[in-house]
Write a structure and sequence with these properties.
Length: 404
């Protein structure tokens, strides 16, 4: 028989530990996010469906996006035990300069659409954290405005080649004048990928007021109020546009770009040249031969050619092909700090993350982007400790493998 008694209040009171949360509603919300996945769910609730789907979605049946994420699920780490990991060093160098983490904030278009703080919020977080940020050609903040908002940030400018070559050259000249350290040439977008979520949602830039969007405004009033009471949502590099994203890409971007354009940019650009959108070893060799200082193994987050090669699976071949002559970065499907650790172990110098910080931006503006960075930094450090590795520099291919 179990003897029972009435508990003393002093014993009961020790079990009551109310959680202390910040007083601000946004801070309270973000404090509940333990992962980027949590931020994604918060983002889904805070913006119109078309905006969330533009960020979250990919091309066609979204097979490439699912494969990219599935590849990280196949990662198997090989830890060592009884190593001193009381302190770990997450720093590295990117393009020869220090970075506090092996990551950069990737270029994303229409960023003020997700939250009116937009690119300036991302730039300020990058400045505080100490990682590079690549501003997109399709950004909604000018390169000069970003430089003013985050003067100490490591600013890169992402370039799409336009049919109007004079306009492309003018953007390069502006980036030089504004003090941008690197040019990121995206080469996987000769035409737009089939973004079917956008088609089904009737998504346009800027958002059009249809019966559907008016109805959606009723459940997302804060987003619409922010949109309508702040500066108009415009492209920083285009005068105006009133159509779909695909129509814009097909009209403006240059489908006839070749390696000669890479060599011409190398001659015109005084800083580091990064080529983004490489999906195999042969193309990596070609762009490095043409003058690239770094390549990004990327399928555009699955947003261009569906069923394209999965970047993580291509990474080791690209590293073997050009890793002794250029830095190699990885982009696509990264939602966890452990993903970044795995990519670095496979030979990447760093990873570019886009959707991850956009979820944070939608969830809470600049503070949400900061929360994304904090989550990834914590996950990177803890993964190193559990691996028995004291620094990013100690990550080697023998620490990781892809399960079949």
């Amino acid at each position: 028989m179990v003897a029972r008694r009435m508990p003393r209040w002093s014993e009961f009171s020790e079990l009551i530990r109310p959680r202390s949360l910040p007083g601000d509603a946004t801070d309270r919300r973000l404090a509940r996010a333990a992962t980027v996945g949590d931020l994604r769910e918060m983002a889904r609730m805070r913006v119109p469906r078309a905006v969330f789907d533009y960020t979250d979605g990919a091309a066609g049946a979204e097979i490439s996006l699912r494969r990219s994420r599935a590849a990280f699920e196949r990662i198997e780490f090989r830890p060592s035990v009884l190593r001193d990991v009381s302190a770990v060093d997450t720093t590295t160098t990117v393009l020869g300069k220090p970075a506090t983490l092996p990551l950069a904030f990737a270029p994303t278009g229409f960023t003020r659409l997700m939250h009116t703080e937009g690119e300036t919020a991302v730039g300020r977080v990058a400045e505080r954290v100490g990682v590079p940020y690549a501003l997109s050609t399709m950004g909604t903040t000018s390169m000069e405005a970003l430089a003013a908002a985050a003067p100490g940030a490591r600013r890169w400018f992402q370039l799409y080649l336009w049919r109007d070559r004079d306009a492309s050259r003018a953007m390069v000249e502006r980036a030089v004048a504004a003090g941008y350290e690197a040019l990121v040439l995206t080469v996987d977008t000769p035409v737009a990928g089939p973004r079917l979520r956008d088609v089904r949602n009737g998504f346009t830039i800027p958002p059009a007021l249809s019966l559907r969007t008016v109805a959606n405004a009723a459940v997302h009033p804060r987003w619409w109020i922010d949109l309508l009471t702040t500066e108009p949502l415009e492209f920083a590099s285009l005068r105006s546009w009133g159509g779909t994203v695909a129509e814009l890409v097909d009209r403006v971007f240059e489908p006839a770009a070749t390696l000669a354009d890479v060599r011409a940019l190398r001659d015109a650009w005084p800083g580091a040249l990064v080529v983004k959108g490489v999906q195999g070893a042969d193309d990596a060799r070609a762009v490095v031969d043409a003058g690239a200082d770094a390549v990004v193994v990327s399928n555009h987050g699955g947003r261009q050619l569906d069923r394209a090669p999965t970047p993580l699976e291509q990474l080791p071949d690209v590293v073997r092909a050009v890793g002794d002559r250029a830095e190699v970065y990885l982009d696509g499907g990264i939602l966890d700090g452990a993903d970044i650790v795995a990519a670095v172990a496979f030979g990447a110098r760093a990873c570019l993350v886009g959707r991850a910080y956009l979820y944070g931006l939608m969830a809470g503006g600049e503070r949400g982007v900061q929360r994304t960075a904090d989550i990834l930094a914590k996950e990177i450090a803890r993964t190193l400790q559990l691996l028995g590795v004291a620094s990013i520099a100690e990550l080697t291919p023998d620490r990781v493998r892809l399960r079949p």
